[in-house]
Amino acid sequence: MAKIEAKLDQYEFNKLVNQWVEEKKKSPQRINRPLTHKLYNQLFNGQQRDVNACTCMDRDTDLKVTKNLEKYLKLTEPLPIQSNVKIDFSSMTKNEDELFIFDEEVSKPKKTTRKTTKKVTKSETNDQSTNS
Question: Hey, which end of the chain has fewer CB within 10 Å, N or C?
């Protein structure tokens, strides 16, 4: 369980925010866990999180702090948020001459044979019984 941190005064809070914004501008992918959790605990006082707990909530904590500080600071440009999706645009930059279009090979369906039992007529059953 997280240790409940007391609210900081406005000057201390502003120092933390300025430090956090500077670090985000330098390297948006990097998460400073102690600073991010300290800001999260100040912004969401009722739902505080522990720095020493599992790291699985780090991205969520960072995202919530970023979104909340954008509202708090009223920035003209949004702060960078780490993306967890990588998009490859290299295929869009090639010339059409370089692109190869392959026709799909049409494959014929494989023939399957079913075993059928030979129907025995009454005359054949009589012949078999007399032969034995």
Answer: C
User: Has residue 43 been placed in a domain?
Assistant: yes
Domain presence at residue 102? no
DSSP state of 53: S
Which domain, by its residues, includes 28? 10-73
List, for residues 58-92, the tens digit of each pLDDT value: 888 888 888 888 877 766 566 666 666 677 777 66
- Alpha-carbon span 80 to 66, nearest angstrom: 8
The three-point CA angle 114-116-120 to 5° equals 175
Does residue 35 fall inside a structural domain? yes
Q: CA-based angle 107:110:116, to the nearest 5?
A: 165
